[in-house]
Design goal:
Length: 593
């Protein structure tokens, strides 16, 4: 028969009431505001773990004589595990989100294992409930250990809900003044708990779905193969072709041939390195009767900052870097030389939005392409670039005369260029997924400049999620998680209200391409651009005009950042015509007042 509930001791009753009452708002904070700050998150996690431990120890004590099995003997271990986890967070020096994820993960695994042990001694729906709860806790714990940023986004929320529900249950038990008994086998038969079974099944399904999504998203990450590994005997001189091989992709149209190349280049500090890229040429420039093709050097837009984000690695990589008109380029009889940039494809770091090394990558890719035996390229070159690549194109025009005087650069076309990293950074809070681009910027500058420290730039509560976001490519399936995280971040990622101060701010200013460009310059901009805003581009062009430099500036009404360079954009015929004029030696237009 079902044994009567045990009357609570007054002291324990009040202790449970206080702890459970605190657990309710703590659980709500964890569930609704996981990113509010690291300090608040630490306090909430400690309070939540403590509440779980107290409720387990006070309200879940078994008293039935028939519960003499191993599960009953070890009933207290889950409560102790939660209290120990809270203690670890308290004493850990400088706890981070990664530490919280691991501590919560271990506690969940222990709790789940104990539930599984209880299931072995149970029967009926009681056994099923214990098994389902145990599997759910173990999977959540493993997920917390393996996927830290999603732990904050999802597991912290689920733990928050668990703390909230536990707090409500503890308050109800304290107000009743009785603890529920851990049911005996007879109790389990008499009280099947079908409602709880439905909840446990739903929780397990949701948890397994989350784990499956994690596996699927991780499996969608592209990874460079051995082609991108630098050999031991890499030449020190920049622009040397190290290796090449034919490249096939659905992006390469009929009537064209492509190669991927590995070549030497120079980092911003002058040290030699290797970069990869693609060379795509019309068939008229290959074979026995080949005619030299003029060259469009392409500097791609943002794809990410890790090696797997190289356009030559990604499926549809040219489109990932915002080149949608390669067919038009080849139809003109021009060849395309598209750098991946050092650190994308090849070993990092990638100097994201750092001007000079990007320009080196562009120019050295052109030099290396001329060393291919199977294609004839002319000595006439024009560089195009979009967004990140637009800034790289501007810097290519600046450094070409000194760095690569052997590359005859006849024109620079910067399409919605990231011409002012400081202005871009200031606008990112207004961009829906601005935190994603901020993560690339913080990671790239911290990896490139020894005086820029990641810990000084990014606030503690955002460091784990920012690092995780920075290690996903825009073309990855997992970027969905990054985008959702960026949308849910309720504060800027920066450690200071004014991120433009100190070494970081100085380096941002240093990378504004403000020097002279000898080649004719075209700057284009969509007036509805939500990332590189038109007003900041106008200011950049005005500054160049005021410095006495010639600029042809064209604005396209109603076009956003990517729409500006899509195949049906009115920019495309203008860009093709502008390029034909540069290759033909037609004098350029200057729109400066």
């Amino acid at each position: 028969m079902v044994q009567p509930a045990r009357r609570a001791h007054p002291g324990a009753r009040w202790a449970l009431l206080v702890v459970s009452s605190l657990a309710v708002p703590v659980g709500a904070v964890l569930a609704l505001r996981p990113f509010v700050s690291l300090a608040v998150l630490v306090v909430a996690v400690v309070a939540g773990l403590t509440a779980l431990g107290v409720v387990h120890l006070v309200a879940d004590r078994p008293t039935a004589a028939s519960d003499a099995g191993a599960a009953a003997r070890w009933w207290w271990l889950a409560g102790v595990a939660y209290l120990l986890a809270a203690g670890v967070v308290v004493v850990w020096p400088g706890p981070t989100i990664a530490v919280l994820a691991r501590v919560v993960g271990v506690a969940l695994v222990v709790d789940g294992a104990l539930d599984a042990l209880a299931a072995r001694r149970g029967c009926g729906t009681g056994r099923a409930n214990a098994a389902l709860s145990g599997v759910t806790s173990v999977v959540l714990g493993v997920l917390a250990l393996a996927w830290p940023d999603v732990t904050v986004l999802v597991v912290a929320v689920l733990v928050g809900i668990r703390v909230l529900v536990t707090g409500i249950r503890g308050v109800a038990a304290a107000l009743r003044g009785t603890w529920r008994r851990r049911p005996s086998r007879q109790d389990r038969r008499a009280r099947p708990g079908r409602g709880r079974l439905v909840v446990n099944v739903a929780a397990l399904v949701a948890t397994l779905a989350l784990a499956a999504v994690g596996v699927a998203l991780d499996g969608g990450t592209a990874r460079p193969d051995d082609f991108y590994a630098a050999p031991a005997d890499v030449p020190d001189a920049p622009g040397r072709l190290v290796r090449s091989e034919p490249f096939t992709s659905a992006e390469i149209p009929h009537g064209a041939t492509a190669w991927r190349i590995l070549y030497t280049t120079t980092r911003g500090d002058g040290t030699p390195t290797v970069a990869s890229g693609l060379v795509v040429a019309p068939d008229t420039a290959t074979g026995d009767a080949r005619e030299p093709a003029d060259v469009v050097a392409w500097a791609h837009g943002t794809t990410g900052v890790t090696p797997g984000c190289a356009p030559s690695v990604l499926p549809d990589g040219l489109a990932a870097g915002a080149l949608f008109v390669q067919d038009d380029v080849l139809a003109q009889g021009w060849a395309l030389v598209a750098t991946d940039y050092a650190g994308l494809g090849t070993a990092g770091p990638h100097a994201y939005l750092v001007g000079e090394p990007a320009a080196h990558d562009v120019l050295d890719a052109v030099r290396a392409a001329h060393q291919l035996d199977d294609v004839a390229l002319s000595d006439r070159h024009v560089v195009w670039g979009h967004s990140q690549g637009g800034g790289a194109a501007l810097w290519t025009g600046i450094v070409a005369p000194d760095y690569a005087p052997d590359v005859d650069l006849l024109g620079v076309a910067a399409l919605a260029p990231a011409s002012n990293p400081t202005a871009l950074l200031a606008h990112l809070p207004d961009v829906s997924v601005g935190a994603l681009f901020a993560s690339y910027l913080a990671e790239g500058y911290a990896a490139t400049y020894p005086d820029v420290r990641f810990a000084d730039v990014v606030r503690p509560g955002a460091r784990t999620v920012v690092r995780e976001m920075a290690h996903r490519c825009l073309a990855d399936r997992g970027v969905v998680v990054s985008a959702l995280t960026a949308l849910l971040l309720d504060q800027p990622v920066w450690a200071h209200a004014d991120p433009f101060t100190g070494a970081f701010g100085d380096r941002l200013t240093q990378n504004v391409p403000s020097g002279p460009i000898a080649a004719p310059l075209l700057v284009t901009q969509g007036t509805a651009d939500s990332i590189v805003v038109a007003s900041s581009q106008d200011e950049y062009v005005a500054a160049r005009c005021a410095a006495g430099y010639a600029v042809e500036h064209r604005a396209y009404d109603g076009l956003d950042h990517v729409a500006l360079v899509e195949a049906d954009s009115p920019l495309v015929p203008d860009l093709l015509a502008w390029t034909r004029d540069r290759l033909a030696g037609v004098p350029a237009t200057d729109t400066c007042p």
